[in-house]
Structure formats: C-alpha cells, structure tokens
UniProtKB/TrEMBL annotation:
Gene Ontology biological-process entries: protein N-linked glycosylation
Organism: Aspergillus avenaceus
Gene Ontology cellular-component terms listed: mannan polymerase complex
Pfam family for this entry, one: Gly_transf_sug
One MF term in the entry's GO annotations: alpha-1,6-mannosyltransferase activity
The entry's keywords: Membrane, Transmembrane, Transmembrane helix
Family label: Belongs to the glycosyltransferase 32 family.
Protein name: Nucleotide-diphospho-sugar transferase
Transmembrane annotation, as ranges: 12-32
C-alpha cells in the first residue's frame, strides 16, 4: 500500500497527465480496499451491531505460503459478487494473536488452541473461535461463490432471526443411515452464538481428556473429522439446539431437505446449497441454486496436517 502510494505520488510530480494517473490510483485503492489483512483494531470497533445480524465479513485463513493464484481468484470473484462484504485474511500469526487477545478471559480456550497437535485442528478450531467472537462467514480457500449474492442466500423470513447458518454436506443419495453432517468450509454466524460456544467448549473438553489420559490418539489425522471437524461441529450444534428446546433434535427433521429449514435460530441449508456436487437428487426433486462450490483442493491429509 505504501509502495503504491509513493508510486502514485512519484508519477504525480513527473507527468502532465498526473491527474489521470492519480484518478486511476484512487480507483485502484478503492478497488483493493475490501481485501486486507485482518487487524485487531477491527475487533475493538465492532461492538455495536447495526444492519444485518450476521456481519458482512468473509473470513479466510492463509498458510505460510499465502494465497495461491486460484484461491485468490475465487476470493476476488466472491467479493465482486458481494460488494458490501469485506474479506478478513488471517495468517498463522494473526490467528494466534486473535486467539490470545479475544479469549484472554478464557485461558482454557487459549491453551487448547496451542495444544492442538496439527495445523488442520487449529484451522478447524479457529473458525469456530472467529465466528463466535466476531461473526461473519467463514470460507475455506478452496471455496468459490456461485451467482446468488450472499444477502439473498436466506429466505427473507429467516434473515432477521438466523444466528447460525449451516449447510448439509451429505444428505441425498447416501442412504438413510449416514451421519448427516454439516459442511465446515462455509459457515455463517452472528457473534456470541451459544451454539458456536458449545462446539468450542466440546473441543476444550475433548482436549482436556486427551491431555489427562497422557497420550494423543494414535492417529489424530484420521480422527480430525471427529475431533475438531464436521462431526464435532454438527454434534455440538445439534446438542446445543436440543438444550434450547429442552429435548433432542432428530436428524429426521432435516433429512432429504429440499429447502432451507429453521430450527430455533439455526438455519440448515439443503445439500445443494453448499455441497451440490456430492448430493444426488431425484429428477422429481425441486432444488434451488447452489450457493458455493467446494473444490476439494485441500489435500488435507498431508504431512503438514493439511497446509501447503
Ligand atoms: C500467544 O500466547 C502464547 C502463549 O502465551 C505465546 O506463546 C504466543 O507467542 C502468543 N502469540 C502471539 C502472536 O501473540
Ligand atoms: C425449557 O425449560 C426451561 C426451564 O425448565 C424453560 O424456562 C424454557 O421455557 C423451556 N424452553 C422450551 C423451548 O420449552
């Protein structure tokens, strides 16, 4: 940014067409404005909610090598289609600082974050922490937006009441008895949702048990989905919803879902919304448009726990 500015002023002093160049520099600055690294100052100004309940912030976490070209294109495309949203990009270090500062009153959460053994566990946990503390939309880097703007994802009657929005990953075409888990590559939440806190607390408890037993499960990679991933997330949300209704939420209530369903303040999106490529509908099923596409680029079972 500073380089860009000094380049702008250098050219400004030299050329007679300086005005034109300054104009384009400003256009460029405005264009790149919504994409920037997350700074902690942002967290201090976001206390008062106005406008949409779910903040118009899309959260991304980049690895040590930063964005690859493809994921950067997907992000830019998403922002073009959603001009009122802004991207918040976290590096490993910003993620650590965020956890340290936002959860200063919960040392058990900080300790859990730092003791999770693999980057993939931390990336899972971080999304729940961010969505709890700040709210917005979590997006994995291998997710692209389809054409429906985010502001139109939910039926109008749900928009004002939704505090958490999840999409079914596997639903249709997998038989009746599969575990109907929610995708975690795209999750929307308003800040301070007790459902999100439940997921966080469950991971803290699980990590405490592991620590007390004195040994990590023999293959933590194979248990990622259960330990911090979609299964953990889905169970936590459903249990928290169960407490909210003084009962249990049966998966039957969202099996073979053909339109968004609201349970309390949680909206469950059908498989075609976030996970169109893995749900196989009958020709007679009336389905809506896909909202995001997951490219399964995260070959996450690698030696570095899923990051490049
Ligand atoms: C966060 O806190 C941990 C533990 O106290 C410390 O080791 C680490 O350096 C801190 N990280 C940042 C980025 O502040
Ligand atoms: C659940 O139980 C609590 C306390 O017993 C009560 O205050 C609350 O209204 C109940 N909620 C529902 C949805 O029945």
């Amino acid at each position: 940014m500073t380089m860009l500015l000094s380049y702008c002023s250098l050219r400004f002093s030299r050329l007679s067409i300086a005005g034109t160049i300054a104009f384009w520099c400003i256009v460029l600055l405005v264009y790149i404005h919504p994409i920037r690294l997350f700074t902690l100052e942002d967290t201090k100004s976001s206390g008062v909610l106005s406008g949409p309940r779910i903040p118009e912030r899309i959260w991304y976490k980049i690895g040590p090598k930063g964005h690859d070209l493809q994921s950067r294109e997907w992000m830019d495309d998403c922002l073009r289609k959603n001009p009122t949203h802004r991207a918040e990009i976290l590096t490993d270090q910003l993620g650590e600082r965020f956890v340290n500062e936002s959860f200063a009153s919960r040392p058990d959460i900080i300790e859990t974050y730092f003791s999770l053994p693999l980057p993939i566990h931390k990336a899972d946990f971080l999304r729940y922490l961010i969505l709890y503390a700040e709210g917005g939309i979590w997006s994995d880097l291998d997710v692209s937006c389809e054409d429906v703007p985010i502001s139109n994802w939910l039926p109008a009657e749900f928009q004002e009441r939704a505090n958490v929005v999840v999409g079914l990953e596997f639903d249709v075409g997998w038989g009746d008895h599969i575990f109907r888990q929610f995708a975690t590559w795209t999750i929307m939440a308003a800040p301070k949702s007790p459902h999100m806190l439940r997921v966080i607390d469950d991971i803290v408890d699980a990590m405490r048990e592991v620590t007390q037993s004195g040994q990590l499960p023999t293959n933590m990679i194979d248990t990622v989905v259960d330990f911090t991933g979609p299964r953990r997330f889905t169970r936590g949300i459903l249990e928290s919803l169960g407490s909210a209704v003084n009962g249990t939420i049966s998966p039957d209530s969202f099996t073979h879902l053909l339109e968004p369903k609201m349970i309390e303040d949680v909206v469950i999106m059908p498989g075609y919304s976030f996970s169109a490529s893995v749900n196989k509908y009958d020709p007679s099923d009336v389905v809506g448009p896909p909202l995001v596409k997951h490219h399964y680029a995260g070959s996450w079972k690698n030696a570095n726990g899923g990051e490049a």
